[in-house]
Amino acid sequence: MKVYLYLWITLLIPVFVSAKEKIKVACVGNSVTYGYLLPEREKNAYPVQLQKLLGENYIVKNFGKSGATLLKMGHRPYTDQPEYQQALDFAAERVVIHLGLNDTDPRNWPHYRDNFIKDYTELIASFKAANPQCKIWICRLTPIGDRHPRFRSGTRDWHAEIQKEIEKIAVHTEVGLIDLEEPLYHRPDLFPDALHPDPEGATLLAQTVYSALTGDYGGLQLPLLYSDNMILQRNKPLLLSGKADKGEKIRVKIAGQQQTTCSGENGKWEVTFPPFEAGGPYTLEIRTSRQKQIYHNVWIGEVWVCSGQSNMAFPLKQCATAQSAFRQARQPQIRLFHMQPYEETNAVEWRPSFLDSLNRLQYYRTTGWTETDTATIGDFSAIAYYFGKMLNDSLNVPVGLILNAVGGSPCESWIDRRTLEYDLPDILQDWKHNDMIQDWVRQRAGQNIRQANRKEQRHPYEPCYLFEAGILPLEHYPIAGIIWYQGESNAHHTELAEQLFPMLVNSWRHYWQSPRLPFYYVQLSSLNRPSWPQFRDSQRRMLQTIPYTGMAVSSDRGDSLDVHPRYKKEIGERLGRWALANNYGKSITPSGPLFRSVRFHNKQAILEFDYGHHLKTSDGQALRCFEIAGPDGLFYPAKAFIEDDRVIVTSPKVTAPCVVRYAWQPFTRANLVNGDNLPASTFRTCLLYTSPSPRDA
């Protein structure tokens, strides 16, 4: 009997020891922690999912309280709730605090914000007192979406202020910081009420907290642009980055140089090499103690992002010069990275499984860098290819082209969320029915997602989507600049486009942390759409107001019936001229004539142009497509002739001219060019009367 009793006790001891040794985790928070609005909260709340991830060596308890504030003078202080005392009594070894969302209520933050740091510090101290051995993490808040009823009336701004305060508190109290905004900010579809995550959102929260507590970030992970055959940017500090498990030692070797670092608390790491000159091939090695990744045939040269909508995506195999391009397709110093969508935005209904992938921002196929040959150039952008070839021919250095262009995409889909939330929040509201967005764009998106089974189904045309799915994954890959061909899906509203395009440029420059990042774009071509003359002129005027930009004119290569003209070689090379002149200091004319000024004298309009040397007509015929108007604003066809690189415009029907316009037709056969045979841009002079200059009097 004693033997059996001894054996029984012996068997039980490990059980008792095991239970005693389990690590207790307290999840402190508000309704997001509690799991408010979640179906089967007991199964889907993030602390429950965290328990499954951590396993049997942990005990995770949910101490969330819906509506709780961090502020002690708030409308529902967490420290006044029974959950708070229960959390203290639990005496956890790990404490995760997510409070502050409800402090954005107008009853709280405007009045008591000065108490936030003090109240949070005292809360942290109370958990340290309950268990002096505990480790504490405080959390940057989960997002509050633009659909929230108080978003613009204060919540947006107060939420941002609280995030900064939480970051300060983490530093000064020496506790861990978990960013719960980053994994969810670009997933508004996971927030049915713009505040509380759904089960998938709760899963992301659990995974984020799990990684912070354990340091497990899935091992060595590298950006999608890292592959064999890659091109790295020359003559700039070379930033290489990735993720690894917390505290991993990272060794990076390239071109005979080595950098070493350690991954941070959030698993992120980066190294920066001094600038390299063009050259190769090299091997890029990235190693941890347990893993390695080796990339071969790596070169250093010039890297450009090529983006926009269908005219940038237009494949080389369909352009007018395809045959000659294929005959010289082997270009080993030109490397292509083609971000191809899984589905084009054609007039079809997408299958539900793909719609689910869209919501997860999985829009592009996995790809890698390729060399340029007959097998790779056919489906690649014709404009990007000719741009890259011109640079390679002129500079004799490797050129890398990153193509990310989506047919029909509007400008707003390429702008980051933060910019639109602050600068143009109205465009985010109910985008599927928002008339700020072009009718065709909304209709095509509606057709593609017709089989969606969730209200907040996403689409590539949604504001911010392509930035989130197509730009963020580039992970700040160092580049020389951007070429852009887009506008067809914004030409319905010129004034709105004049707001959106500068936002786009600034958004991308901020992302790449380069305020002078070159941004060269294509002016829309000729097509029988009535709004296009105004839009083209708007593009010209923005060239004057947005620094470090250039514009390639394409109206002379338009098609009256086809939005996709086949003449792309010239357009790519015109973009190349801007880059060669501005980026690389080549003595080359970057543009055709651009309207500079007008003077009115003796019933004549006298026009002067930038890049207006050796003015002539492209066909040897008389100048055409000039119009002139007087104070009544009525335009009449005008006679125009060239004199000393100026254009003189008159009409017998206009005795007091005060405004001139050129190529002001949707489809134009205008023929003014400069000595380099580059076409003049559409333009209209200022509508205000300009007095004669003294020398003309």
List the defining traits of the structure above.
31% helix, alpha/beta, 21 helices, disordered N terminus, Rossmann fold, single chain, 3 domains, five-stranded parallel sheet, eleven-stranded mixed sheet, 697 residues, 22% strand
Structure description:
By secondary structure, the protein is an alpha/beta fold. It has 3 domains: 2-214, 3-Layer(aba) Sandwich (Rossmann fold), CATH 3.40.50; 302-582, Rossmann fold (3-Layer(aba) Sandwich); 594-696, no CATH class. It is 31% helix and 22% strand. Strands 6, 8, 9, 11, 12, 13, 14, 15, 16, 17 and 18 form an 11-stranded mixed beta sheet that branches. The chain has a 5-stranded parallel beta sheet with strand order 2-1-3-4-5, with helices on both faces. α4 crosses α10 and α7 packs across α8 (151-173).
Q: What are the SSEs and their pairings?
A:
Elements: H1 2-21, E1 23-29, H2 31-34, H3 41-44, H4 46-54, E2 58-64, H5 82-90, E3 94-98, H6 109-112, H7 116-130, E4 135-140, H8 151-173, E5 176-179, H9 182-185, H10 199-214, E6 231-233, E7 238-243, E8 249-254, E9 257-262, E10 268-273, E11 279-287, E12 292-308, H11 310-313, H12 322-327, E13 331-338, H13 352-359, E14 370-372, H14 374-377, H15 382-395, E15 399-405, H16 417-423, H17 439-448, H18 465-471, E16 481-485, H19 494-511, E17 519-522, H20 532-545, E18 549-552, H21 569-582, E19 594-601, E20 604-610, E21 616-617, E22 626-629, E23 635-637, E24 639-643, E25 646-650, E26 659-662, E27 672-673, E28 683-684
Parallel strand pairs: 1-2, 1-3, 3-4, 4-5, 6-12, 12-15, 12-16, 13-15, 16-17, 17-18
Antiparallel strand pairs: 7-10, 8-9, 8-11, 11-12, 13-14, 19-20, 20-25, 21-27, 22-23, 22-26, 24-25, 26-28
